[in-house]
Structures are given as C-alpha cells and as structure tokens.
C-alpha cells in the first residue's frame, strides 16, 4: 500500500485537451503534459515597488487609495468569484536619499522623482517622513503581504561626494569609502525605525541599483558602483546589520541588464557579477557573508527582444546560476522600456492587451527559461506617459483620476495564483504553435496545480479538459480558469469539458489533480 501511494505522487500526469491547434491536423487533439517528477525553482515572490508615485498617492482620499491597494495586494474575491486584486506577495519600499528636502537645489528636475529620507538637517531622525509610502506598507501588510524589501537608488545625500542624490562624475560612484560606515548606520536605524513606527519587518535590503549606468543626468536618484565598490559596501553593511541583530538579508546586485550578470561587455569592472560576487575564488566574493541572500538579482530591461536572443541569454544565465551551489536568480525590476528591436516601444502608455501580452511573454521567459524564483515590477503606480505602470494616476499630489491597466491583470495571472513556496514543474504542449506559452506550478504537499497559458497569437486554441493520466487515468476534480483579455480581468470560469483560449488572451487554470 505504501509503495502504491508513492507511485501516485511521482508519476507523470497529463491533462488531455481536445480540439484543433494551428500546428496540428484537423481533428487531432492538443495535449498538455504536466510531469510532477520534473521540478525546477521554488517561487519566492511576485512584487512591485512604491517608487515614485506612492509618495503622493498615499495622501489621496481613502476610497481611492484603498482601491489602488486592493488592486495591488488583495486576495479577496467578490460574491461571483471575481478577484479584487492581483495578490502581490512582495512590496518594495524606496528608501530615499533626501532629494525631496533639497527641492530644486537637488538638481533632479522632476519633483515626482525625488525622494525623502528620514534624516533632518540636524542629523535627527524624523519618522513622519515618507508617510504616504508608509501608508502603502501598512496597506500591503493588512491585505496579507508578508515579504518586504527596502531599496536605495542612491545613498542619502549627507554621505555623497557632491551632496546630491545623483553622480557628479559620469559613471563614478558618488560615495567615498570613508562614508560607508555612516551609510550602514543610517540603514540600520531606518530598518529598525520602520519596524517600530510602521510595524513592518524588512526581509531584504537592496543597497545597490543598476550600478552599470552613469546616473549623472539628474533624471532621478542614482549611483554607479564597480563590483569592487559593491563588495566593500556590502561587507560593511553586513557587519553593521549583524551587530545590530537584524535578520534582514542583503539582495545584490540589481544589474541594469541581465548580460552584466554574466560578462563585462561594455562596462569593465561592473559586469560579470555572478563570478565576481559569488565565486569564492574572486577577490570581491561576498556570497559567504552571513546576511547576503543566496540570490543574484538582475533586471530584464533591454533583453527581451528579439525573442530568440532573449531566450538564449536566459538559458545561459540559468545554467551558470545552477552551477553555483544554493544560488537562485531573481528578476527584480522590469517595465517596457526602449524600442525592443521594433517589437514594442516603451514610449506612450498603453493600458490594453498589446503591452500586457508582451509583459506576460517576458514573465513566462524569465520563469520558464531563466528559472527566476521571483519576478518584480518597477512602478506599481505611474503618473507618466510610458509603459511603466500597473496603475496610472493623474500627476496630482492630493487627488485625481486613476485607472488600472491590462499589464496589472496580466501580472496577476501569475502573482495571484503562483504563490510563494510553489514549485515549477515540467509542462509542455507538443505540437502547439510557438505563440502559445505554458508553464505549471505545484503547491507543496497539495494536489493543487496552477497552469498559466499565454496565447499571443491571432487564432483561438480550443481545448477540453478530460482526464489526468499516469499509471492509470484519473479524473480532474475541478478546474477554474481565470482569463485576462481585451474585455476581461482575471474573469473566473469553471471548466466543464471544454475551454477556448481566445486570441491575445492569458488564462490561468487552477486544478485539483486528485493525485
């Protein structure tokens, strides 16, 4: 009996779908195969950041900011099963450098891209600062978010070379080594202060952001670093945080392009970060420090097109990360930027399905090819005319209009259903068109399997859920489909016998496999 029970959980299971696929002959069936024996990464989180608009949106009328928070964090449903939100499981808090207090003298032209710090001019801490951001911290916690990350774009201005939150010399770090300890002390006090005053314990601190870029144009807070400088900063932070009794882990290195995790390319001394920071033989090795998370983080900007090139880069990254014992990869920041080789432009906001499908394709590739254990978005709330927001608001500090986007709900097809601790399992669609993407995830010690299907094509994919086969055929107890399309936002539908995935549609299937 025990032997038979074990077989049931290691067998290969297939959900059979009937109906025509574009690459198949009429009358043939399309079969989705889920092999629960073949496992990949365990999911840590799906997240987004509060930069930059949350510092104002958190001051908006209660009804409006609460609906925004519901869209981002809620796992609740309406009476008919319609999800209220996308259930993010990680929230990123922008620890500002203090450019807001400097006003126009900060040199950052757009005040919405400035950020407060907790330091007063006399060196005292003022915990009423970043109050609107703290509102979103609490709103996330109240709606069930359990993982929080604080990040810097620049060290606070008292510790920078030029007294500003962006570099004075193109591509050169804006903090002197003599200020590393003061920077670390401020960080310790900020993490402790936010825990005392906002009730939030930060699981992670990301001290470095996109160190490869120059950060000298005053467009936002930012600071370049070489790998040697990153290692030096991280060593001081780790020592100070450990001495203070913090359990917060350090996340590095938030590379501005995935290629810099693997090679220097055009940024000597700032690339090849996987080897430089996580190879014990490297002079800049920090992977063994007690508070450094066993994670290498990078951003998927500028690496998604052409599609085949992006896939090849992610395969190489997955292989090299797998070669480092215990290390995982996080995709820690993305929105649609640049021209993407003509596939889609980041200019001009688009709240419809074209951008949503591009985002879904990127999420799929990062998870199913690069083996990302986390996937995080950039601006959760945007006031700009770019494809950078999940939610868009008027550029108004106290009130205004707001709207969701299909990019929000496309992310929700993953974030709401693929929960922390779930493990990606093998999923394939033999004979399916290349425009139909599939990945699958299984909840530990549970029969629940989540399948995300992204149909970027112009043809419907008609499928019928029939049975699960392993050593013997087993019925699917139930399947619920959640659809995001031009007219739907995670619309729920119980699947009985058949389901048609319409063109340019994202569908998440939540199944009890009755194993």
Question: What's a concise summary of this model?
Answer:
This protein is an alpha/beta fold. The chain has eleven helices and 22 strands. It is globular, with a radius of gyration of 23 Å.
Structure description:
By secondary structure, the protein is α/β, with parallel strands linked by helices. The chain has two domains: 2-38 and 425-512, Immunoglobulin-like; 45-420, Glycosidases (TIM Barrel), CATH 3.20.20.80. The chain has eleven helices and 22 strands. Strands 18-17-1-2-13-14-15-22-19-20 form a ten-stranded antiparallel β-sheet, covered by helices on one side. Strands 3-4-5-6-7-8-9-10 form an eight-stranded parallel barrel, surrounded by four helices. Strands 16-21 form a two-stranded antiparallel sheet. A hairpin with a 7-residue loop joins strand 13 and strand 14. Helix 6 crosses helix 7 and helix 10 (353-368) runs parallel beside helix 11. The radius of gyration is 23 Å and the shape is globular. 52% of the residues are buried.
List keywords for this structure.
515 residues, alpha/beta, Immunoglobulin-like, 10-stranded antiparallel sheet, 8-stranded parallel β-barrel, 22 strands, 24% helix
Strand content is: 15-25%
Domain count: the total is: 2
- For the record, what CATH class of the largest domain applies? Alpha Beta
Q: What radius of gyration results from the CA coordinates?
A: 23 Å
- From the N-terminal CA to the C-terminal CA, the straight-line distance is 15 Å
Per CATH, the architecture of the largest domain is Alpha-Beta Barrel
Distinct helical segment count: 11
* Bulk shape: globular
Quick one: CATH superfamily of the largest domain? Glycosidases
What would the CATH topology of the largest domain be?
A: TIM Barrel
**How confident overall, as mean pLDDT?**
91
| Proportion in helices | 10-25%
Biggest sheet, spatial arrangement of strands: 18-17-1-2-13-14-15-22-19-20
Biggest β-sheet, characterized? 10 strands, antiparallel
Low-confidence stretches: 1-13, 16-28, 466-473
């Amino acid at each position: 009996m025990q032997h038979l029970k074990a077989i049931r959980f290691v067998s290969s299971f297939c959900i059979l779908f009937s109906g025509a696929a574009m690459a198949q002959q009429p009358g043939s069936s399309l079969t989705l195969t889920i092999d629960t024996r073949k496992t990949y990464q365990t999911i840590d989180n799906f997240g987004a950041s509060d930069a930059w608009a949350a510092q104002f949106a958190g001051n908006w009328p209660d009804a409006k900011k609460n609906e925004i928070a519901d869209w981002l964090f809620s796992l609740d449903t309406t009476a008919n099963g319609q999800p209220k939100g996308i259930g993010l499981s990680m929230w990123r808090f922008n620890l500002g450098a203090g450019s807001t207090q400097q006003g126009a003298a900060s040199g950052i032209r757009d005040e919405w891209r400035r950020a407060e710090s907790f330091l007063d001019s006399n060196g005292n801490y003022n915990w009423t600062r970043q109050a609107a951001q703290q509102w979103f911290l609490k709103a996330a916690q109240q709606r069930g978010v359990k993982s929080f990350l604080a990040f810097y774009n620049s060290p606070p201005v008292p510790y920078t070379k030029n007294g500003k939150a962006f570099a004075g010399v193109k591509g050169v770090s804006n903090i002197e080594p003599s200020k590393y300890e003061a920077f670390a002390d401020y960080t310790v006090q900020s993490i402790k202060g936010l825990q005392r005053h906002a009730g939030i314990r930060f699981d992670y601190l990301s001290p470095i952001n996109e160190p490869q870029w120059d950060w000298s144009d005053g467009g936002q807070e930012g600071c370049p670093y070489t790998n040697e400088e990153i290692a030096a900063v991280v060593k001081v932070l780790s020592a100070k945080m450990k001495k203070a009794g913090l359990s917060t882990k350090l996340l590095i290195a938030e590379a501005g392009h995935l290629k810099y995790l693997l090679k220097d390319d055009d940024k000597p001394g700032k690339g090849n970060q996987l080897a430089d920071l996580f190879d014990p033989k490297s002079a800049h090795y920090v992977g063994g420090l007690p508070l450094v998370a066993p994670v290498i983080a990078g951003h998927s900007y500028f690496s998604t097109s052409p599609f085949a090139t992006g896939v090849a880069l992610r395969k190489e990254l997955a292989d090299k990360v797998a070669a480092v014992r215990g290390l995982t990869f996080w995709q820690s920041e993305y929105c649609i930027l640049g021209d993407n080789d003509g596939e889609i432009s980041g200019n001009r906001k688009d709240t419809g399905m074209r951008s949503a499908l591009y985002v879904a394709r990127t999420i799929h590739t990062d998870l199913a090819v690069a083996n990302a254990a986390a996937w995080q978005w950039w601006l959760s709330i945007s006031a700009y005319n770019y494809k950078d927001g999940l939610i868009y608001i008027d550029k108004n500090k106290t009130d205004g209009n707001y709207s969701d986007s299909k990019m929000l709900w496309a992310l929700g097809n993953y974030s709401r259903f693929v929960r922390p601790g779930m493990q990606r399992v093998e999923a394939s669609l033999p004979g399916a068109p290349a425009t139909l993407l599939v990945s699958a995830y299984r909840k530990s010690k549970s029969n629940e399997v989540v399948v995300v299907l992204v149909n970027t094509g112009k043809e419907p994919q008609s499928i019928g859920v029939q049975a699960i086969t392993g050593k013997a055929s087993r019925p699917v107890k139930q399947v619920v489909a959640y659809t995001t399309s031009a007219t739907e936002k995670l619309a729920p539908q119980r699947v009985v016998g058949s389901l048609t995935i319409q063109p340019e549609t994202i569908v998440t299937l939540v199944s009890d496999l009755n194993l």
